[in-house]
Amino acid sequence: MKSEKAAEQKPRVTLIGSEIAKVGLEFIYEGLLPECEGCSVKKACHNLKPGRKYRIVGVRKTRHACSVHYNDACAIEVVEAPVRALVSADMAIRDTRIAFDSSCSRQDCENFPLCNPDGVIQGEKYVVAEVVGSAPGACDRGRRLQLVDLRGA
Fold this sequence. Notes:
Elements: H1 4-7, E1 12-17, E2 26-28, H2 42-45, E3 53-64, E4 73-80, E5 83-88, E6 97-99, H3 112-115, E7 125-134, E8 145-152
Antiparallel strand pairs: 1-4, 2-3, 3-4, 5-8, 6-7, 7-8
């Protein structure tokens, strides 16, 4: 079940390699590369927030020559994709705005990938779009965790 607010997101137009421009693809935007400095369309490519996760919802026919992507770059429409994460149980309330703070560095813990998911930036504000349920495993630090879907605030 999708959050109503997530469904209302207005797509942003950006560019991505034409070989990977497929509806439904999710990616983490990493930011500007040195090879992009002299490009005439770099503002169109680099209009997303570094470190955030996006989903392609539309592919346009517009193409541009690109020194980074094989077979040129293609115009796409994206929305911010929800990120599945573990948060403290007291913050796991649907439509609540939270500042994401994992504060766990135990990389050998089975929950580490969900406590520190790709696409979420420490300290940034997010909205709990959906409360999915309990953590898949016990927290090594004894914290009560809930599995949620986060979207940018």
